[in-house]
Amino acid sequence: MVDPNRVVSYEDMLKVINEPQKVIIDVRNPDEINRTGKIPSSINIPLGNVDQVLQSMSDEEFRKNFQRHKPSSEDELIFYCQSGRRSSEALDLALKLGFRKSKTYLGSWNEWSTKNK
């Protein structure tokens, strides 16, 4: 069960897509995103890569891959996927890595795509 204080709503997401200091991370696989699209301003780090990217990717490599600064442990990370399961796993991982302000958008792509037609 995810801590309710770590969950963002659809309404929250509408606000954070315009806040560059928030890091919205889509943890789906690239082929899923190519089929469906993504939430504006999000970056794609598949769930299997989250640990390696957040923990050991250099700032320079992160900037090269994602066109933004690598988040620090003080930044707010918001994870989403297709239905909320993988984003919850990514949240747990990020918290273990010291990203204390991390959250999950449990509605994920299923909710976003339904409400943004």
Could you explain how this protein is built, in words?
There is one protein chain. Helix 5 (85-96) links the parallel strand 3 (77-80) and strand 4 (103-104). Strands 2-1-3-4 form a four-stranded parallel beta sheet, with helices on one face. It is 44% helix and 10% strand. The protein has helices spanning 10-16, 30-36, 47-56, 59-66, 85-96, 108-115, and strands at 23-26, 43-44, 77-80, 103-104. The chain has a single domain, classed as Rhodanese-like domain (Oxidized Rhodanese, domain 1, 3-Layer(aba) Sandwich), CATH 3.40.250. Helix 3 runs parallel beside helix 5.
The largest sheet is: 4 strands, parallel
Q: What is the name of the CATH superfamily? A: Rhodanese-like domain
Give the class-level CATH name.
Answer: Alpha Beta
Q: Give the % helix.
A: 40-55%
Mean pLDDT: 96
Tell me the number of structural domains. 1
- Rg, rounded, reads 13 Å
What is the overall silhouette?
globular
Give keywords.
single chain, 117 residues, Oxidized Rhodanese, domain 1, 4 strands
In short:
The chain is of the alpha/beta class and 117 residues long.
Topology, please?
Blueprint: H1 10-16, E1 23-26, H2 30-36, E2 43-44, H3 47-56, H4 59-66, E3 77-80, H5 85-96, E4 103-104, H6 108-115
Helix pairs in contact: 3-5
